[in-house]
Each structure stands twice: as C-alpha cells, then as structure tokens.
Amino acid sequence: MKGKVRLITTMLIFGSIGVFVKKIELSSSEIAFLRGIIGSLFLLCASFLVKHKPSFKALKENALLLLLSGGAIGLNWIFLFESYRYTTISNATISYYFAPIFVMVLAPWVLKEKLTGGKVACILAAMVGLFLIVTPGGQGQNHTLGISYGLLAAALYASVILMNKFIKNLSGFETTLIQLMAAAIVLLPYIGWQGNLAFAGLNSTSIIFILILGIVHTGLAYFLYFTSIQELKGSTIAVLSYIDPISAVIIAAIFLGESMTVIQMIGGFLILGSTFLSERLELKIKTPTTTP
User: Fold this and answer.
1) Which of 124, 151, 205, 289 could share a disulfide with 241, CB 3.0–4.6 Å?
2) Residue 179: HSE in the Cβ half-sphere, 13 Å Cα cutoff
3) What angle do CA 272, 273, 278 make, to 5 degrees?
4) How far apart are CA 250 and CA 7, in angstroms?
C-alpha cells in the first residue's frame, strides 16, 4: 500500500472515531484507558512483527517527557470524548483542530520561534471562526460546553506536539507506543479514584466498539500513519490530514443525522483554513496532522 493511500485510509479511520465513541456506554475516562491499553498492545505486537527494537538508552533519557506527554494524551482523549457527548461530532472535531493554533501561539515562548504577520492573521481568523461556530441561534449551553471540552483537548494535544519537539533519538512510532502505554498508566489511578475500575457499563455492544476503537482507530491507524509519513513530504501530509475533519462531518451527517448551519460552516472553514495555512507556514512541525 502506497504512502498516500495509507495516510488517506488513516484519516478516514480517524474521521469515524466520534461515531464509535458515542456508541460506547462507558465514561470518557474508561474509554480513554481501554483505548490506551488495547492500542499500545497492538503497536507492541506490530513492533515485534517488524522486528523493531527501540533504544533503551533513548527511552531512559526521554522518560520524563514521555510520561508527561503520555499523560497529556490520556487527558486529551477524555476531553475529546466528553466533547462528543455534549455537542455534535462536527463541532467537537473542528474545535479540536484548534491545536495547531495553540502551538503557533505558544511557539515564540516555548520554541523561541518568531510570530510572523501571517501567523497572527491565521490566529485571528481561527478566533473569528470559533466565534461563528459557538454563537449561531439554536446553540445551547451543552454545545458551548462541548466545544469548550474540544478546545481543552486541543490545548492538551498542542502540549504533546511541543513536548515531542524535545524528545531525542526516538522515532515517531517508538514515541507513540510509549506514550500510549504512559496514557494508560496515568489514567489507571484516575478511573480508580472515580470508582470506575469495575467498568459497570460494559456490555456486548460496548465491548465490540471499544475493541474497534483500540485496534482500528488507535493501533492500526497510528501504525499506518507513522509508516506513511516516512514516504511523504510535509506539505502532502498537511493537505491530506484535512480528510479527517471533512470525513468526520460527512460521516456524522450520514449515520447520526447531524448538520451544521451556514454560519457554522463558514466558521469551520475559517478554523480549518487557518490551521492549514499555519502548517504550511511552519514546516518544522514533524507531524502536521492533529490525531484524535
């Protein structure tokens, strides 16, 4: 399978994640924990099959960053899944794509990168887009809360992108594998504190969907993603990554009957257009896409 086909397949898989999460009758923290466990086990098996041996010295050197970024990924999933619960998949996905904007805002302080006029314009356009999504008539408090959760998830993913820039001597595959394990480890005491270790809401339907979420949407999708980006240019990855939010809107409309107003569509276009331009302006980002 060629690199472009693998990446397109990955984005279509990511685009369907919200529909599956909505069918799982567990708390967001339980879903995130099981996703981390199943996904990391899949990637661990894949690393054995391809005979990939990580550098234990590099793992030790980056241990703190891997633990922190893994914890951020786990919390990022919780907020994203909560966003799906309180608002539409379209709103949640588009608000989640604010992550590159957060990276752009923080880069001058964290990475000492210059904030150019073009980047400022992207930030302002994205803010206008967000205002258009949140404020149309008919939007209730739940939608606003859901979008807020989506933005929190985006902020956490932005922190992962920034932390990954300081991780040295590890491939993207190795980093992701350890981060998924770390996410599960960090979330375990949290769900224990919530009293959800019994997974009381787990029924046959939820088991099927959580397995699909862990194996297909996490293990397989991340494996396809990291093997495809090795063969593609950064600009190509940036363009193809927008199949994810577009397909998410279409899938939600087909299977859940969700829709967006014209004003919201304009807002979504402004946000996605801004993040696309920001990624074209900043080709130093190793993984331009925002992976859910």
Assistant:
1) 289
2) 28
3) 95
4) 18
- Residues 268 and 175: their CA atoms lie apart, in Å, by 31
Are the beta carbons of 225 and 40 closer than 8 angstroms?
no
Nearest to 55 by CA among 223, 178, 219: 178
Cα–Cα distance for residue pair 45/36, rounded to 1 Å? 14
The yes-or-no verdict on residue 69 having pLDDT over 90 is yes
Question: Which range, 49-53, 170-174, 189-193, 265-269, has the best average confidence (pLDDT)?
Answer: 265-269
Q: Is 246 exposed, middle or buried (0-12, 13-18, 19+ CB in 10 A)?
A: middle
DSSP, collapsed to helix, strand or coil, labels residue 262 as: helix
pTM, entire model = 0.90
> Which residue's structure tokens are 């920001």?
278
Q: Which two tokens stand for residue 251?
A: 């899938």
Q: How many CB atoms lie within 10 A of CB 231?
A: 12
Phi and psi at 261, nearest 5°, equal: -75, 165
